[in-house]
Amino acid sequence: MPDTSSLPDLDRRRILLGVTGSIAAYKAAVLVRLLTKSGAEVQVLMTEGASRFISPLTLGTLSEREVLTDIFPDGPATDEGSWTKHVDLGLWADLLVVAPATAQTLAKLTHGFCDSMLTATALSARCPLMVCPAMDRDMYTHPSTQRNLETLRADGHIVMPAAHGELASGLVGQGRMPEPDAIVERVATELADRPYAADRDDHNTPPDETPSSRKPNDSMAGREVLVTAGPTQEPLDPVRMLTNPSTGTMGFEVAREAARRGASVTLVAGPTSLDTPPGVNRVDVRTTEEMHAAVQQRRTDVDLVVMAAAVADYTPVDPSDSKRKKDEEELVLHLRRTPDILETLGKHKRAGQTLVGFALETDDGPENARRKIDRKSLDWIVLNNPSESGAGFGTTTNRVTLFHRDGYSEALPLQSKRAVARALLDRVTRPVPTTQDAS
Description:
The protein has two domains: 14-199, Rossmann fold, CATH 3.40.50.1950; 224-428, 3-Layer(aba) Sandwich (Rossmann fold), CATH 3.40.50. The protein contains 13 helices and 21 strands. The chain has helices spanning 27-37, 56-63, 85-92, 103-111, 117-124, 137-141, 143-154, 180-191, 249-260, 288-298, 341-347, 365-375, 417-428; strands at residues 14-19, 41-46, 95-101, 129-133, 158-159, 163-166, 172-176, 224-229, 234-237, 240-242, 264-269, 280-284, 304-307, 314-316, 335-337, 354-360, 380-384, 397-398, 401-404, 409-411, 415-416. It starts with 13 loop residues before the first strand and ends in an 11-residue tail after the last helix.
């Protein structure tokens, strides 16, 4: 059982959990437990095939709710609400999570099949839909499955990539259902700052959100935005590298939010497993040199640059073409500085262009951040401290302070990285407040 001491807060959240016929269905018991421990109410929907791998009684006991399978449950046809249960559930929930999601169920969700309580509810739900694929390696990589996943993404649904590892067939590859604790973290991220279904006053009024995202707006329509995200990797030899723990989440959320506001967004991403946000043009790079070249090629015509990537400051002078052997007790590496992408952008910033940098500091943060603004000709800098709880690398949350070149600063509370992205774009696309210090 995963550690429950640091679970996210899902109090008052209502989760529909769809469980389908994969051997990974046994993990649904742990997932239900973690969700309820986080404070969520959980209603389980199972396909007929799922009951071959885990008992409805088990999931019903853990969720303290009857598990639903059929669109029309057994009983008199006159049972009040029995034939509209899927509609009621779609209004009740904050999020519908399908975990594990088999190739069969993914195909049904993609093409609008309605042959179970799960698929019927998915069609009528006003809440977001999130799928967590689980199947054998070759089934997952099959073009049909990948097309279905791409279609779901294009429709605005959330696809959590399958994990890599040993599969039930004995093969090793991508296809494992993400671990329950990772799913719970993703649930918390997707629900951050969304209104609660429990607070909706009138279920008969049109929803104020699209099925899987906030209602789009056009506040950044016509703007060209360039975002960098993720780490860079500097090879020592074909199997070793210098890098850092950045996942790229912060930059991806900035790109996602800018696109949602109508901007034309290019995302230059270092190595990361994150999915490309809807409507974003992604350019994948590996090294700092490659990121520098990609940014310089695209910097001229953009209105806003947000440098959220955690780039390596040094790279080996002479990387080996073959794996280094452990022949010596000590290994001396000679390193050289990599290009300072942000400083180069500042030197060539055109009139009307806004340049935003990120600073990850453990000591003297405000002083170092302000010096970077001056030295690199920035308009804004976002300061965060990786030693603070809930901030920095590998988290779904962040606590940052925004600094403007004119002296204005604002400390934001600990919140999801998606909420930080929204707040950041709110500030950098509007006139700077006259108050000198909002922290």
